[in-house]
Design a protein that fits this description.
Blueprint (H helix, E strand, L loop, with lengths): L7 E6 L5 H13 L3 E6 L9 H8 L17 H6 L3 E7 L1 H8 L6 H8 L3 E6 L3 H5 L1 H12 L3 E2 L3 E4 L5 E5 L3 H11 L9 E6 L4 E4 L2 E3 L6 H12 L3 E6 L11 E4 L3 H10 L6 E4 L6 E3 L18 E3 L3 H8 L5 E8 L3 H11 L4 E6 L11 E8 L4 E8 H17 L1
Parallel strand pairs: 1-2, 1-3, 3-4, 4-5, 8-11, 8-13, 11-12, 13-16, 16-17
Antiparallel strand pairs: 6-7, 9-10, 14-15, 17-18, 18-19
The chain binds flavin mononucleotide.
Amino acid sequence: MSNLKNKNILLGVTGGISAYKACELSRLMLKEDAKVNVVMTSNAEKFVSALTFQYLTGNKVSTDMYDISDEKISHIDLADKSDLIIICPATANFISKFANGIADNLLLNILLATKVDIIVCPAMNVNMYENKIIQENIKKLKKNGVIFIEPESGELACGWEGKGRLAEVQNIINFLKKKFKNKKLSKENILITAGATREFLDPVRFISNPSSGIMGLCIAEEFKMRGAKVNIVAGHTDVDLSNFDSYIRINTADEMKNEIAKQLKKYSVIIKVAAVGDYKFKKIKKDKIKKDENKIDFDLEKNTDVLQFIGDKRNKNQILIGFAAETDKVIQNAKKKVKNKNLDFIVANDISKEGSGFGSKSNFTTIISSDGKIDKLGLQTKETIAEKIADKVEKMRQN
Ligand SMILES: Cc1cc2nc3c(=O)[nH]c(=O)nc-3n(C[C@H](O)[C@H](O)[C@H](O)COP(=O)(O)O)c2cc1C
């Protein structure tokens, strides 16, 4: 059965060039057995007609706040009867009005009157999307619990290249399906570490690794969808973490350890995905090393082992999961880590395999549990690996 079956979804359509894609979105939601009601801004009607949505959904399309032809369909009724509201596409204008609490059309009134989750799918020219005012408005909405499905990069209808194209409709459907997934992890308070640590030699130079933080992000999204409270301690990463319950960015392994140590006891599941550097500089130079010094001497020393620290301190009700990126003796090394670092299971990633590793969309993994069980996942997308990890945590909690 589809996760969207019998869900009342209110689709808000605003006046952007990609409004026609909302027709396909409504069709796909209906195919998943959702009940779809469409509300359009008057500018959206310049791009697609209400008749199209009315025909597709079988429901009256609402546009006018002062329409008294159907006394039941007020903005409060529409806000109350939905399980979820999705704005697709969302114009720069609409996002900005919403972020500032403006309510001068039916759709904006509904958004202010609702208590259900609101998902916004921005679509606009790259310069508009990157405009600081728009970014600030998006940030403000995120801070207030509005969920964003990021636009994609590529060729835009206006002829420009860049970020701003509406997310693929199928990806929006996948997101909605996940949103309505079971909430079996709603009692869990999760800590995820993500990204790459940096160890500085002087104020401008450091050693690090190419971890992108994407694997950590996929896990965070999956656990959030299943109802968990998600906290992130992140090293360097370009990914947006503002959709989660809390996040903090750090540089070094020591900073990561100290941040985790502050509240270690409060987490029920800890997933260490961050790529933490194994070595650090013995001495950090206070001032920038000058270019005309012909030779630089430095010594490296063993870095803080963050996973070992957590493994030593954890209690038995906490679930501890590690990640290991290896190029050789993958299983053998991972087995050792499970035991030595007191883990429940480890996700061993063979980064020597094509398509696997830092910055790629997939990983070649094997899950090794403390009871010796081995699950060979092979090459899978990072989203699928995140699902498998969440499934395993759900199972562990059932036992
Ligand atoms: C041909 C055309 C295409 C447009 N496409 C977009 C778009 O993709 N994204 C956007 O933010 N604004 C776009 N606009 C500008 C919006 O239509 C305008 O800001 C309008 O006020 C939005 O109204 P609404 O937010 O109430 O629906 C476009 C305008 C025109 C004339």
